[in-house]
Design a protein that fits this description.
It is a single chain. By secondary structure, the protein is of the alpha+beta class. The chain folds into four domains: 8-75, no CATH class; 87-188, no CATH class; 220-432, Aminopeptidase (3-Layer(aba) Sandwich); 438-548, no CATH class. The protein has helices at residues 28-43, 48-67, 70-75, 92-101, 117-124, 132-136, 142-149, 157-165, 171-181, 220-225, 236-251, 258-261, 334-349, 358-361, 366-371, 373-379, 387-402, 410-416, 438-453, 458-473, 483-497, 506-518, 525-532, 535-548; strands at 85-88, 106-108, 185-188, 231-233, 263-274, 277-284, 294-295, 297-302, 305-310, 312-315, 318-321, 324-325, 353-356, 383-384, 421-424. A hairpin with a 2-residue loop joins strand 8 (297-302) and strand 9. Helix 22 (506-518) packs antiparallel against helix 23. It is globular and about 75 Å long.
Length: 553
């Protein structure tokens, strides 16, 4: 979660990590501190020699831990350090990623399984009919059965299971069965490239940070609107490599996000914002895109080292997003980095309104509450949307100015975090804001449209809605559309079919035709840009939602 940026004088550690030759056996906490310092210096080196020392130290730490007492290594479980273990119940998609990227390094943590029935149900889906009696006989345990079933494969239980699940149809069913089994795994990081010690995206050059890190811009709005020199869409190969870095950066920290798990290797953008800092933005694979919103995750890299991440939902000209900086980098230029993330999204999509939800500010989130996340956003220009909370924030700000060292009590921060905060750029208009409360209402409109379409099945009803919308928009045929484009059309069609298009202009109808096809296009960014320019769609959808609200006819 967010923490307020500290003064620049406290950003960079005062001392470099030790030379490798000076390493001695240390306690687990000492190894953690040394590892964090080396990671920080690798991301923000003040000299080439410091960069070399940090790299050598990270290698030596792993070697020392492996050669040291087992008790120390055990206490470093889940640290993400090379040579240690990560224990976690990963989702189906990350588990499948692990099976493909680090074969032989992951095993089922049998001792942590309390209830075998969900795993047994999953295994029944991969058995041959001739095996049913043996499996259900009661004379063999789940683990023993798997040992017999994989005897000739040379694979671990985990690798064998994932190989059996790979390619099973329909994938959504097996994803659900695997996730329901909640299988505990143990990942031996060893010297693989995905530990926190080794997970780096290759860069052409390293920027030396020979001065204090950058402060929060005086005028964040001006910085956000500043043009970027260029944003590159990576090749599929480079995009896939960066997705691996993103997934691993979370997996070693017991985190996951759909933004990375379902990222599209064909749609990865990389923006250089100076001094070795790059912002990567990931589009989603067509099959995993959201109906109305364009959801795009991002990863912050410092000299190729992942130091933070977040997700975003782009809708018309607004974007709902937040930032997470990994613990060891929280003494860096957090506020500056967050402004650069907003700048990149503005350059990509043209959004003029940024939204922070109460959870990001501390509602139901003790870490954000304790860190004073509300003031982090406030100092950048975000303001509460509710007038009462805005007045209360001004009163609290006056106390802070009057009393040096004063910090808002938790009870006050909780009250401040009770509503959304918005940052608006010059030119943003209130009437362009599509309140998030209308998203479930929009979904209700789509459900009604599908229900009225009739048909023998929901799928047939959806096809009828598509045909109806084709006729309304003058789309003669979808024969030239790709399968992904037709799928995208089917996903978004019920929302638009629920609207009255009779008074729309020709240009608005033409824009809608482009929008429908772009939903399933190779790059979803095109869809986000078209949505940002479709005022009639926004206005009509909001009007329809208001009319469908309880109490309205």
């Amino acid at each position: 979660m967010l923490r307020p940026a500290k003064s620049p004088q406290t950003y960079l550690p005062g001392n470099s990590v030790s030379k490798p030759a000076s390493f001695k056996s240390r306690s687990a906490p000492a190894y953690r501190r040394l590892h964090d310092k080396a990671c920080f210096q690798r991301a923000f080196p003040r000299s080439k020699s410091e960069l070399a020392d940090a790299g050598s130290a990270l290698q030596q730490i792993a070697t020392s831990i492996s050669a040291g007492p087992k008790a120390v290594s055990r206490r470093l479980t889940d640290s993400g350090i090379a040579g240690t273990l990560v224990k976690y119940r990963f989702s189906y998609d990350v588990a499948m990623w692990l099976a493909g990227k680090v074969p032989g390094a992951v095993e089922i943590d049998w001792q942590e399984i309390q209830d075998f029935e969900p795993l047994d149900e999953l295994l029944r889906q991969v058995q041959e009919p001739c095996e049913d009696e043996f499996f259900d006989s009661g004379g063999v345990s789940t683990r023993e059965w798997m040992d017999v079933a994989r005897a000739g494969t040379g694979r671990s239980s985990f690798d064998w299971l994932m190989s059996e699940l790979r390619g099973k149809r329909p994938p959504a069913v097996f994803r659900q069965l695997y996730n329901a089994a909640d299988i505990p795994l143990v990942w031996n990081l060893g010297d693989c490239p995905y530990s926190r010690s080794t997970n780096v995206f290759p860069t052409h050059r390293v920027a030396i940070r020979n001065a204090d890190l950058r402060r929060r811009p005086r005028q964040a709005r001006n910085e956000i609107r500043k043009p970027l020199a260029g944003i590159t869409r990576l090749t599929r190969e480079r995009g896939a490599r960066l997705i691996d870095v993103a997934v691993a950066s979370l997996a070693t920290r017991h985190r996951e996000t759909n933004h990375f798990d379902f990222a599209n290797p064909d749609e990865v953008y990389l923006a250089d914002v100076g001094k070795g800092i790059a912002i990567a933005v990931f589009g989603l694979l067509p099959a995993h895109r959201y109906p109305l919103e364009c959801t795009m995750g991002y990863l912050i890299l410092a000299n190729g080292v992942p130091i933070g991440y977040g997700g975003s939902s782009v809708l018309f000209r607004q974007i709902n997003t937040g930032i997470n900086i990994f613990d060891e980098y929280r003494r860096s230029e957090t506020a500056f980095l967050w402004v650069q993330v907003m700048r990149v999204y503005h350059a990509l999509v043209g959004c003029t309104r940024y939204i922070a939800n109460p959870y990001q500010l501390g509602e139901g989130n003790s870490e954000a509450l304790q860190s004073g996340a509300f003031w982090f956003y406030y100092r950048l220009g975000y303001r509460p949307v509710e007038a009462g909370v805005r007045r209360f924030a001004l009163e609290e700000q006056a106390k802070m100015r009057k009393t040096p060292g004063y910090r808002s009590p938790v009870a006050v921060l909780r009250k401040l975090a009770s509503c959304d905060m918005h940052l608006t750029l010059p030119g943003a208009r209130q009437r362009e804001y599509f309140a998030e409360e209308w998203l479930p209402a929009s979904s209700g409109l789509a459900t009604r449209e599908l229900g009225l379409a009739g048909g023998r099945s929901r799928s047939e009803g959806a096809s009828r809605v598509v045909r109806k919308l084709q006729e309304s928009l003058g789309i003669r045929s979808l024969a030239t559309w790709t399968p992904d484009e037709r799928r995208g059309m089917k996903v978004i069609a019920p929302f638009i079919a629920a609207l009255d298009l009779s008074k729309w202009s020709r240009s608005e109808l033409a824009l809608t035709r482009k929008l429908l096809r772009a939903k399933g296009g190779k790059y979803e960014l095109g869809f986000a840009r078209l949505m940002a320019g479709h005022d009639r769609l926004r206005e009509s959808l909001e009007l329809a939602c208001r009319r469908s609200a309880p109490g309205n006819s």
